[in-house]
Amino acid sequence: MPSTKKLMVAVMMVFVSVLLFSQLNNKFVKLNNPRDPKEMQNVGGSRLDLDTEKRVLRVEVSMPRLSFLSLQKLNETFKERYGIQVELINHEEANGRLTVEDQFRLGQPPDVLLVHSESVQRLAQKGWLLPYESAINNLETVPFWMKEDVRWNGLTWGVPAYVDPYVLVWNKKTLSSFTHNDAPPATNTEWMNLMTTWFTAHSLEEAAGGQTESQTASTQQPEFLFSWQEEDPAALLSFMWRIGFIQPNLPGERLGEPDLSSWRPPVVTNSSRTITSTAGSSLSSPSQEKESDAGNENSPYQWLEAFVQVEEYDSAFHSMQDVQWQHVWDALEQGKAMFAMVPYSEAMQGMKEPFSYEEQREVKYPYGTFARGSSYVISADSALEEEAKTWISFMTEHEQLQEMWEMVSLLPADGRVLELQGTIQRRYLSEVFLNRNDEMLALRLRTEQLLQFGKQLGRWLQSGITTESLLKQWDELWLMQPSEHDKEQEKEKEPVSPQV
Questions:
Q1: pTM greater than 0.70
Q2: Of 68, 106, 307, 316, which sits most exposed with the smallest number of CB within 10 A?
């Protein structure tokens, strides 16, 4: 019996010795293996690599370079704080990239996108976005029109982040030498006088084959009065509104200070074209007007237009075809253009001597300029919904919004951020964008259609389409009810269910 126990102990010791030797030998082989470490990692860790790759959050925005660099800085802070890997892409600088719509159609959208707020409802209707089921902290303190832009079918589909109103900028030396004034015209009458003076001098110069005898190098007139980026129809529409060629439909003096004492919101009843204002200008308007409930989204009224007056001065308008917005500033600096219309953030980034800009509080109603909001949305194809919401929540916190405001002058959609800085949104937005009324609802319901019209307006200034065609498109834009627009969108492509 004792001999049997000794034998068993000996066998066990041999087994343990063999096992230990085997383990030591394996470690020795791994330490001396000549294969590439990356190759070794792929052999045993492919599943881990795949999971890590899936957890990279893809975010795509479209911003000028300085704004994007500031957002990149905030993104690095986010990654350090939350440990989430984020690939941040600037669509504006990525030449040859697919459009947002193309990416969705091909099933290749990023997880998070920064889009113009007016497009959120359309993207949601197509089934391309994930809704927010929980409350959004800053939604009650953003402009009402942005709040409505991101809501559809009783759900919220985006988080408002920034507002960028358009502002008029000019070269002080050019303006002063040509008009002997430091400030631009205020009313349509003053603008028409400036355009007439420029057109007359421009015609005489062309007839003389160059600079006239009465001109010197310091007083040589600009080649054109108004410049904007061709890819930005909102800038051209802002020019038309600021000059007074489009205005809300109000009684009294149409092209000047309005009389609001007896104003009631009218509705479009048919497409008859002309009405003569007390200022004597022929403006587009419905032939009949009747009272309607203020704020009724089913009957927004048509804005007035005076494009026929512009036709004679189309040479005063010049679009910049280069995608680099700095070329607008080059034209101003060289005295080739007198005025430009750009978003406020770009105006502040490009502001230097001898440039100046017009603050919105200096623009008297009914004149104004457009403002465009941008909102963060989550793709319905995203597998990282929680990470996406965390990233968006971080970027729309007061601290980050304030930093973007201070670094690159992107106006925060959350009004509380400005209040903490001792200012208010009213200082930066046209009056129409501050009150919930019919003219605002009319604009909001047709923002995307207005931008499409802005492109046609640019073609018209270049004699690409007839005046009759332009006016017809203007009437059709306002006569289309929101329900009709929704039907057209459905015909274009049937909406699909979000893939959660």
A1: yes
A2: 106
